[in-house]
Design a protein that fits this description.
The protein has twelve helices and 15 strands. It is an alpha/beta fold. The strands form three sheets. The protein has a six-stranded mixed β-sheet, with helices on both faces. Strands 2-1-4-5-6 form a five-stranded antiparallel β-sheet, with helices on one face. Strands 8, 9, 10 and 11 form a four-stranded antiparallel β-sheet that branches. β14 and β15 form a beta hairpin. The longest helix is centred in the last third of the chain and has 17 residues.
């Protein structure tokens, strides 16, 4: 669990401190206010905090971690120093504070090839590995990213490591045994089944090295080896949950709606254990609303809330009013929901970015998102009153 992010002199951030909720965090801001950069900073630092590769010395660890960090951000000038704030006198410094008090910090300047890593730990455990879902869908792109006939340098010139890392997670083993996973973990059963119900099926990795969409649904059946004595056991112990496909029907993932593919990504991550509430690291999702039917946004928010209730820390970035409002409407204090909103704003004179964090939705009235939709509503009222004499 991550409790705080500190940034000094990274890209447009001069000095920023972000205290995160252990449950659900919503990053809000107009385009160009750095929402994605914050998600990438958390992701990159989370990877730095993982155990080093066996046999690596300190210098080798810093070199490989620095290259990875640059691959996550992919500045136009592909070098670490390009991430240093222009005109800043002091070095760039990023720190991630975990819930157990352990920290990981990196520092570099505009001429640095590799950054320096500093870690302090109050426990022997390392931070759990984060998962990053970029704004664009990935399912239909995995085939191209992993195709051995394509030059790796070309693939990396098109996709940053947020995309290629997710592609590897999506094809990781374990998914085909999803029936047992759904049955063994009742916390995830309702979430996984609802994700399938939303899109009417699931995305499956094929032997041809691509994802295909299988229409179908989950259903519960009595365990085939259940005896009469076992009938008295609790419900989960006497049933199995299996996916039932519509025989003879499947489609290329590219032939399905992009919004459905984004939901399919979360379904697969839950089924193969890449996202496991209470066990895996923070889930970072950039613009989950992108290309998503507004009718589905309510369901996506409900699912994210359910994951957070079961121990999954979530950070999403958005500039969509509908998604934002659903977080407010669906928050349930009876379920101990906790949502922290982080509002990013750019100073028009200096260009620096600041953040205001609040646990109260009512304090978001002055955000650019709210103002834009307020102006839209005012324009609609004005038009409806044209020609009406009062």
């Amino acid at each position: 669990m991550i409790s705080e992010l500190r940034i000094e002199n990274l890209t447009a951030f001069e000095n920023l401190q972000l205290k995160l909720s252990p449950k659900l965090n919503v990053m809000i801001g107009s385009n160009g206010t750095g929402k994605t950069h914050i998600l990438k900073a958390i992701y990159g630092l989370g990877l730095v905090g993982q155990p080093s590769i066996a046999g690596q010395n300190k210098s080798e660890e810093e070199a490989s971690a620095s290259k990875k960090f640059v691959r996550i951000f992919t500045p136009e000038d592909v070098r670490l120093g390009a991430l240093h704030s222009k005109g800043a006198d002091s070095e760039t410094r990023l720190s991630l504070v975990n819930g157990d008090g352990s920290t990981v910090e990196i520092s570099f300047n505009n001429r640095s090839k590799y950054f320096k890593i500093s870690e302090t730990a109050t426990t022997s455990s390392h931070a759990t590995k984060p998962v990053f879902i970029p704004a664009k869908e990935v399912l239909s792109l995995v085939r191209g990213m992993r195709n051995s006939n394509y030059d790796r340098e070309t693939v990396e010139a098109i996709f940053d490591d947020g995309y290629t890392d997710l592609a590897e997670l999506l094809v990781s083993p374990g998914f085909e045994d999803e029936a047992s996973r759904v049955s063994e973990d009742p916390r995830l059963s309702s979430v996984i089944r609802e994700l399938v119900d939303l899109v009417g099926g699931r995305y499956r990795w094929t032997e041809e090295g691509a994802f295909r969409f299988e229409p179908g649904h989950y259903e519960e059946k009595a365990a085939p080896d259940r005896t009469r004595s076992q009938a008295a056991k609790v419900y989960q112990d006497s049933t199995v949950i299996r996916f039932v496909s519509k025989e003879g029907q499947s489609f290329s993932s590219a032939m399905t709606a992009e919004g459905y593919r984004k939901i399919g990504v979360l379904h697969r991550l839950l089924c193969n254990g890449a996202v496991s509430p209470g066990k895996t690291g923070v889930l970072l999702w950039d613009e989950p609303e992108a290309n998503l039917n507004p009718k589905l946004m309510k369901k996506v928010v409900q699912i994210l809330l359910e994951l957070s209730r079961n121990g999954q820390q979530v950070v999403v970035a958005t500039h969509d009013y509908v998604l934002l409002k659903w977080f407010d409407l669906l928050k349930n204090t009876g379920h101990e929901d906790h949502i922290r909103f982080h509002v990013l704003a750019r100073d028009e004179e200096t260009g620096s970015i600041s953040v205001h964090s609040t646990d109260e939705y009512d304090q978001l009235a002055e955000t650019g998102i709210a103002k834009t939709f307020g102006a839209l509503y005012d324009a609609e009222i004005e038009r409806s009153l044209e020609g009406v004499s009062l």
